[in-house]
Amino acid sequence: MDKKDLFNQFVAFTTAVHQVTHELTQNVKIDNITPVQYKILEYIKVSQPVTPTEISDCQHMSLPNTSRELRKLQERKFIEKISDTEDRRKHYVCLTKTGEKIMEDAFACIEERFQQLIQYSSKKDLEDIHNALNILDEKVFNTKS
Fold first, then answer.
1. pTM summary value
2. Which of 4, 92, 102, 122 has its CA 20 to 30 A from that of 30?
3. Residue 40 has pLDDT above 70, yes or no
């Protein structure tokens, strides 16, 4: 396969992923949380513990904006900051029990929508999707160890 064609297919795929992600997470309501705060909580949920810099980089936000949003989430007791035991200047961010609960609720809503998307998929289709996601994780996104 031509690598340029593969790249174009990948760009179209990632665009579709963003669109489906938007549709799945649209209208997931959590106690007056902004969309930016939701994306931060979602990232923390799947990647914790994380540093504010990692959040800033992943969310394409300036570090001061990230810090402001983290402070708001900490005030609402959704997250907690933990100091690094070896370098007290470094902090990690994790969800609190309250934060875990609201993200479990949000993911339950998203899962229900996802199940609707795949409800007519055959067992073979589901296996193919599973295998495709594993290959993407391993070969493109590098999330597998």
1. 0.82
2. 92
3. yes
